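Design request, tokens follow.
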């Protein structure tokens, strides 16, 4: 199968691309810099230069591909969520219809999305899902839990920092497990026109995940709890947009519980089995 991954050089896009390659697919990666795409994947993929926010750059780029998998950026500002996820998905869908794309797979989020959700990125994801569902193109939407691949972001300057109280306990999932689920789903008719949930083996609090990560990857490093309002303020005045966006996401996830049930996806494509300990040992071997 010929699969074009848009956003394939991102944190979660990369393990998805690698698992699609392992499954024997011909894989393309769409993004702004074809040279960077080739460098990231050591020329194992076909680079496709495009910008999801500029429909003109999408013209003709989907010809010859069977499926699209979308792994789009949400931040680093709220307006970027609508520009990239909502607007970008609408642009992609329009071109996919012209190109005769057979299927779209989209990475969304494991929250209770709605058109009037109070959190802007959640509204943007809902709009993106709606564009895909109303297109008539067969689809699989993945509402995934927190990714273990984000844990290294906690380590800065010799400390491990936890934003907020750290009590939220999602079903953390490893990016490579999610990649296997995507690869399997694109070979199955049972996943057509469904919204599926991608959860890891068991719920683990952010505090516990940070402790496990510290013990394995940065032994002896102190763990500090950083107040979300303080980090938001400092990031705002310093124009550190990515840090500010991360703080807003953690603020949201502290009050919005993980939503959904992964039983159906586990039955169809198999469960994610990697634990945080296993993931961190794998990271530790790479450090």
């Amino acid at each position: 199968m010929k699969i074009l991954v848009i956003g394939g050089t991102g944190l979660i896009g990369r393990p998805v691309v690698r698992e699609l390659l392992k499954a024997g697919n011909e894989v393309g990666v769409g993004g702004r810099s074809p040279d960077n795409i080739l460098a990231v994947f050591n020329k194992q993929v076909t680079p496709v230069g495009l910008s999801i926010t500029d429909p003109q750059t999408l013209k003709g780029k989907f010809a010859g591909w069977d499926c699209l998998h979308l792994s789009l950026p949400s931040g680093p500002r709220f307006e970027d969520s609508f520009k990239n996820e909502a607007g970008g998905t609408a642009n992609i869908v329009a071109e996919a219809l012209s190109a005769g794309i057979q299927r779209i797979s989209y990475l969304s989020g494991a929250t209770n999305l709605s058109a009037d959700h109070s959190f802007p990125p959640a509204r943007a994801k809902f709009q993106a899902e709606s564009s895909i569902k109303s297109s008539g193109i067969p689809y699989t939407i993945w509402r995934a839990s927190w990714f273990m691949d984000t844990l290294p972001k906690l380590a800065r300057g010799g400390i491990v920092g936890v934003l907020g109280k750290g009590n939220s306990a999602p079903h953390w999932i490893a990016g490579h497990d999610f990649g296997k689920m995507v690869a399997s789903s694109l070979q199955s008719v049972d996943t057509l026109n469904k919204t599926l949930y991608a959860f890891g083996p068991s719920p683990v609090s952010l505090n516990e995940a940070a402790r496990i990560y510290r013990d394995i990857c940065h032994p002896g490093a102190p763990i500090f709890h950083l107040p979300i309002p303080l980090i938001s303020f400092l990031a705002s005045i310093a124009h550190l947009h990515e840090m500010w966006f991360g703080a807003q996401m953690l603020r949201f996830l502290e009050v919005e519980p993980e939503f959904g049930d992964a039983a159906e996806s586990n039955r169809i494509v198999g469960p994610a089995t990697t634990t945080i300990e296993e993931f961190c040992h794998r990271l530790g071997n790479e450090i």
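Comment from the thread starter after seeing the answer: thanks! The first strand starts at residue 2 and ends at 6.
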